[in-house]
Design brief:
Peroxisomal Thiolase, Chain A, domain 1; nine-stranded mixed beta sheet; alpha/beta; 2 domains
Length: 395
């Protein structure tokens, strides 16, 4: 059984940094990472971390680069520290955050920097698509030419059929994401869309249209973690505590699952994080979901226990930050409006949730949030990593 940590082992986020998501033709991956690292260290009073955890999915395939830990430590002026890269497909950012968190909990180190970075504009689209699909089963899925987009379309078609839903049932996930992203200065797309615009969008892989899929983007995000006994006497911004952390896996191949519409790894990772935080779902004030595809958002809400099977889509309309009632979702626009930064997604989520809990979210601010749940997925939810972040005074 997972138990609550002793008070002297509390782990805090004391600094965050992000770059704008988009097509950064003039910047390399390490330059993007340096921008995020520098911003996070500035918020952490220029503290030097004892370890660097790098989240990345695509650099070996697209940039022909491994050893990202040593590469970025050197480039950031941190040569000599312990550094490593963490890969769990789209869940790499969450998994890197979890590994840093566990290292701090163990007492082996007292400070760590987590950075997620991706550079997808290194290659043409077909190469990028093939690299992304490396998160699938190489022997039984990608070898036959299936893509993550077509897999999402198959799931969406089955979902609509199973529950007797109209083709536009998931439209509000996109509308909500773009409404929230309009207030995010780091988002790739900062313009709201209407349901009518969604309905006019071209099909990408029927029934999934252009607005049901998040755009791949370049970008980097970083968070600086520190254990309670090492905190500086003064902090630039309010502290945010990691109160829960959980991870789980499922089969990579969809055909190996009893029901492809059940994201079982999401259910397990969510419950583990909530149990460790000592919270229930009613205590969570907003969710940062991995909405690479709108169907992922619906299935994640159902697996995580916020909706019954076939009902997750109903939560989308109330997910906008400015909605009068409901649970805010993807408050900075999620992958759909911010851009999908591959393995860096989970680090962006952690940075965004931290800004919310510090009341620094600007036009995207949720009203007095106390607890946030963030979750990123690897592949078609073959890996799920969940964290609960809290204001320290409520934890």
């Amino acid at each position: 059984m997972i138990t609550t940590l002793p008070k002297d082992q509390d782990i805090y986020i004391i600094g965050v940094g992000m770059t704008t998501a988009g097509e950064h033709w003039d910047l390399s991956m390490k330059e993007l990472a340096l921008q995020a690292i520098s911003a996070a260290r500035a918020e952490a009073s220029q503290a030097s971390p004892e370890a660097l955890f790098v989240a990345n999915m695509l650099a070996p395939a697209l940039s022909r680069q491994t050893q990202l830990g040593a590469l970025l430590a050197d480039f950031a002026g941190l040569r000599g520290i312990e550094a490593m890269s963490v890969e769990a497909a789209g869940a790499s950012g969450g998994m890197a955050l979890r590994q840093a968190y566990l290292a701090l909990r163990s007492g082996a180190i007292s400070s760590a920097l987590v950075v997620g970075a991706e550079k997808v504009t290194e290659r043409v689209s077909s190469e990028v698509e093939a690299a992304v699909m490396s998160a699938g089963d190489a022997d039984y899925e990608s070898i036959h030419g299936i893509t993550q987009t077509s897999q999402a379309a198959l799931l969406m078609r089955r979902y609509l059929y199973e529950h007797g839903l109209p083709g536009d049932a998931l439209a509000d996930f996109s509308v909500c994401a773009h409404a929230n992203g309009a207030n995010n200065p780091y988002a790739m797309f900062r313009k709201p869309i209407s349901r009518e615009i969604y309905l006019r969008a071209p099909m990408v892989s029927e029934p999934l249209n252009m607005y049901d899929a998040a755009p791949l983007a370049d970008g980097a995000a970083a968070v600086f973690l520190m254990s309670a006994d090492a905190l500086p006497k003064t902090q630039i911004y309010p502290l945010v505590r990691i109160t829960g952390s959980g991870a789980a896996t499922d089969s990579i191949a969809l055909h190996d699952r009893p029901d492809p519409l059940q994201f079982s790894a999401v259910a397990l990772a969510t419950q583990r994080a909530l149990d460790q935080a000592g919270l229930d779902r009613n205590s969570i004030d907003f969710l940062e979901l991995h909405d690479r595809f709108s169907i992922y958002a619906a299935l994640s809400l159902e697996a995580a226990g916020w909706a019954e099977p076939g009902q997750g889509w109903r939560l989308a309309a109330a997910g906008a930050v400015r909605a009068t009632d409901g649970l805010p979702l993807c408050t900075f626009g999620g992958s759909k409006a911010r851009g999908d930064i591959g393995g860096a997604t989970g680090v962006y989520q952690a940075a965004e949730a931290t800004l919310q809990l510090q009341d620094r979210a600007g036009g995207a601010q949720v009203n007095e949030p106390q607890h946030a749940l963030i979750q990123c997925l690897g592949g078609v939810a073959a890996t799920a990593v969940t964290h609960v972040l809290s204001r320290p005074e409520t934890s």
